[in-house]
Write a structure and sequence with these properties.
Layout: E1 3-10, H1 16-24, E2 27-33, E3 39-44, H2 49-52, E4 59-64, E5 69-79, E6 86-93, E7 100-109, H3 113-116, E8 120-123, E9 127-132, E10 141-144, E11 153-155, E12 165-166, E13 173-178, H4 186-197
Parallel strand pairs: 1-4, 2-6, 7-10
Antiparallel strand pairs: 1-3, 2-3, 4-5, 5-6, 7-9, 8-13, 9-12, 11-13
Organism: Aquimarina amphilecti
InterPro entries: Rbsml_bL25/Gln-tRNA_synth_N, Ribosomal_bL25/Gln-tRNA_synth, Ribosomal_bL25_b-dom, Ribosomal_bL25_C, Ribosomal_bL25_long, Ribosomal_L25_dom, Ribosomal_uL5_bac-type
GO biological process, one term: translation
């Protein structure tokens, strides 16, 4: 999984007045949980652009002004309901030997047979929740849809890996090929091809 660094300043004052002053100065108040102590810090709003406004998932190195560096991952984010400015971010500290839970983006590979026949690919999940060591997690999860015919579904069981545990029930559907008005059923197509290749049956001889 990709990582990026955010330069930040540790903060001691965590009250409403101090938080409001930070936001007025273009800073985002943040908290890191999961370690021996809770760490409060702030960083310019623009520093989070490549972390927040992207479909990708990153681990983060929080480089504090006291020289401390903390490995973390974004856990929760609050936006202003009107302006969409970032109000607050929660991070979870990560360790080399402790698994983390994240939602990774899902990407299809191949061209589904059912879509080529006029069907439509519908998604139930765009992100897959998994658990594993940060060093073992990929940037995204891929699933091959080449063999999906009309009516077929791609389940989470098709994307299992030794590097992580999928945190969805086995019968969870990621995507499926649904029929449409222009769709041609695969089975009907095969039957028609078979019928065209058959020789006409010989007529029985007439009785004398």
């Amino acid at each position: 999984m990709k990582s990026l660094t955010i330069n930040a300043s540790q903060r001691e004052s965590v009250g409403k007045k101090a938080t409001k002053a930070l936001r007025n100065a273009g800073q985002v108040p943040c908290v890191i949980y999961g370690g021996d102590t809770i760490i409060h810090f702030a960083a310019p709003e623009i520093a989070f652009k490549n972390l927040v406004y992207t479909p990708d998932v990153h681990t983060v190195v929080i480089a504090l002004d006291n020289g401390t560096k903390v490995n973390a991952i974004l856990q929760d984010i609050q936006f202003h309901p009107v302006t969409d400015r970032i109000l607050h971010i929660d991070f979870i500290q990560i360790f080399d030997d402790k698994p983390i839970t994240v939602e990774l983006p899902f990407k299809t590979t191949g061209a589904a047979k059912g879509v080529l026949n006029g069907g439509v690919l519908r998604f139930n999940l765009r992100r897959i929740k998994v658990k594993g060591l940060a060093s073992n997690l990929p940037d995204l999860i891929e699933g091959d849809i080449t063999n999906l015919k009309i009516g077929n579904k791609l389940l989470v069981t098709s994307i299992v890996s030794e590097n992580y545990t999928v945190l969805h029930p086995d019968n969870t559907v990621i995507c499926m090929v649904k029929t449409s008005r222009t769709a041609v059923e695969d089975d009907e197509e095969e039957e028609e091809e078979g019928a065209e290749g058959e020789a006409p049956a010989a007529e029985a001889p007439a009785e004398a």
